[in-house]
Amino acid sequence: MTSQTITRYQLEGRMLEVCTCEIICPCWVGENPDGGACDGSMAWHIDQGQIQGVDVSGLTVALAVHLPGNVFEGKWRVVVYVDEFATLQQEQALLQAFSGQLGGPIADFAQLFGEILKVERAPITFTVEGGKGKLIIGQAVEAELVPFLGATGQTTTLIDSAFSSIPGAPAYVGKASLFRSTVPELGHNVNLKGYNAVQGFFRFEH
Question: Is 117 in contact with 185 (CB distance < 8 Å)?
């Protein structure tokens, strides 16, 4: 009798990320963040996917984070935002996956979390049009992102970086024409222009 492989999650979608590091964020290549610490936000919009049989297509999960030092030293302080349109079952599934409880590539990323300070449901705006992205998380975060372009007009791409919030996929580096973050739990009181931004597609399966 052969054992059957159980797929815990299959997720495909897009990611947006902004932070207080200058261009390009040193964390992605394993170096210390600019200024010694990094405050940022990242979001994954799931275009299509399921977690343990629960359909989570069309939903977004986002983080506000404080990195006290090098990205690989962990001890991140995190506030998690779950799409206000998620049902209770969908919310539980998203939290299981993105907190690392279900293993796989998401767990490799989530193991860097030192403390999840709060989980909050919030209205989340996530759009990417013509290479430009917008992320709004309730009253906490607002960001607009523009990718860098190479000599041929193609987006500038970071591949095989030491760190990634979309493991296994290329990242499109750019800058945030706007990044505001007010998250008291993390000490965020950010209002910046022209700092680091990253976009990308992801496919997480485990």
Answer: yes
